[in-house]
Design a protein that fits this description.
The structure is a single chain. The chain is of the alpha/beta class and 378 residues long. The chain folds into 2 domains: 223 residues, Type I PLP-dependent aspartate aminotransferase-like (Major domain) (Aspartate Aminotransferase, domain 2, 3-Layer(aba) Sandwich), CATH 3.40.640; 88 residues, Aspartate Aminotransferase, domain 1. It contains 13 helices and 17 strands. β11 and β12 form a beta hairpin. The longest helix is centred in the C-terminal third of the chain and has 19 residues. The structure holds ligand T4K. The site of ligand T4K has 23 residues, from α4 and α5.
């Protein structure tokens, strides 16, 4: 039995692993919540977290939610959008489902092969008189071409809502990512760089005051005050236990990102320059959060397909993930409604991409082992 197989018997390495504060730190932060018996509905910790995140993310306004998905759905609802939304199929199910669940029609724009975000050169040809918004995704924390998207949106009077689920804490030339477009939706899921167990947020500018008020209403059933319900809302309130987790995790966020950077750089060192493997490229001016480590496998050059590489890794106890395969326009639930052939770049990337394990406490020797398994095919 080789060393890699032996290791496999000992432990599995999953694509990610939630970072945690110490239990003592969490309990200490939780104590006042426990004593107060005020557990949810925009409590003290919820408000504290809101202020802390506003400062950290360098945004004017923020509303917190139960998860990133509700942040997107309620943003679409709060803007009272009707018609078609131009979006990307190279994303998690949430982005497309949110559009559909709001009674809107997703119109899929292909992605660019450099950073896998929406290709702005293809947006204009998709705009019709029914288009109301653009919903791009900062996929893997790669930032969309925000200037070009903004220009097109202004020209046609469209809203821009970014899915910033992967972009926590990132900035472009010093400007917080959450300040681009009309709104940006974050996920604080347990698998993210920053998490509140489950959670999410929408960031928006001061121009969008009415939007912010509507978001607040919608996450609490549309109740404006006792005996008064103004909108058909839902329940999407972040509870105090989650807010406490967020307050603790935010204290350690700089270290979290620094440790992820080390892991990511170790992958770069081991894998760069290998013909047939495409690594993520740094984007000029972007301060990254190192949330994901995607690589593309070109079977003709490297000799292994993405699926073969994933199988070899899993035989060695390493569970990389095919984020994002299939593209959302190829999901079974959308068969006959959308056509993945209309977004050929997204289709190809989704068939080649594998996101390797990346988390703060992944030992660098394990990174070396993962790379050696890929390079040596086992
Ligand atoms: N937009 C985009 C672009 C997104 O990627 C997402 C979420 C959203 C919107 C929606 O945001 P949320 O509503 O989720 O806040 C995971 C996450 O559940 C999901 O949040 C995330 N994207 C997606 C990319 O990844 P799955 O189905 O792959 O999760 P699962 O359970 O297979 O977990 C993946 C790995 O994470 C496991 O192998 C182990 C590790 N893990 C998992 C859990 C649940 C932990 O370490 N701790 C945990 O508590 O979706």
């Amino acid at each position: 039995m080789n060393n890699n197989k032996k290791k496999n018997k000992e432990e599995k390495i999953l694509v990610t692993r939630s970072s945690m504060p110490s239990i003592e730190e969490y309990m200490e932060e939780l104590r006042s919540v426990w004593d107060s018996r005020y557990l949810t509905n925009m409590g003290v910790k919820h408000e504290e977290l809101k202020e802390a995140l506003k400062a950290y993310l360098k945004v004017d306004n923020i509303e917190l939610f139960t998860n990133g998905h509700n942040a997107i759905e309620l943003s679409l609802q709060a803007f009272a959008l009707k018609g078609e939304v131009i979006t990307t199929p190279f994303t998690f199910a949430s982005t497309t489902h949110a559009i559909v669940r709001c009674g809107l029609k997703p119109v899929f724009c292909d992605i660019n092969p450099k950073d896998y975000t929406m290709d702005p050169g293809r947006i204009r040809e998709l705009i019709t008189d029914r288009t109301c918004a653009i919903l791009p995704v900062h996929v893997y924390g790669n930032i969309c071409r925000v200037d070009e998207i903004d220009r097109i949106a202004k020209e046609y009077g469209l809203k821009v809502i970014y899915d910033a689920a992967h972009a926590f804490g990132e900035s472009l030339d010093g400007r917080g990512i959450g300040t681009f477009g009309d709104a940006s939706c974050y996920s604080f899921h347990a698998t993210k760089v920053f998490h509140t167990i489950e959670g999410g947020a929408v960031c928006f500018g001061n121009r969008e005051k009415a939007f912010g008020e509507m978001l607040y209403l919608l996450k609490d059933f549309g109740i404006s005050r006792e005996n008064n319900v103004e909108a058909v809302g839902t329940n999407a309130k972040l509870n105090e236990f989650c807010a406490v987790m967020g307050l603790c995790n935010l204290r350690h966020i700089a270290e979290e990102i620094a440790r992820r950077k080390k892991v990511s750089e170790r992958y770069d060192r081991n894998l760069q320059g290998i013909p047939g493997l495409t690594l993520r490229k740094a984007q000029p001016g972007l301060t990254m959060n190192y949330g994901y480590y995607p690589i593309l496998f070109n079977k003709e050059i490297f000799g292994l397909s993405r699926d073969e590489a994933a199988e070899i890794l899993s035989a060695n106890g390493i569970f990389a993930r095919k984020y994002f395969y299939p593209t959302t326009n190829a999901f079974d639930c959308y068969r006959g409604i959308f056509d993945p052939a209309e977004t050929p770049v997204a289709k190809q990337i989704s068939e080649q991409v594998l996101t390797l394990p990346l988390f703060a406490d992944l030992p660098l020797e394990e990174v070396d082992r993962i790379c050696s398994i890929i390079i040596n095919r086992g």
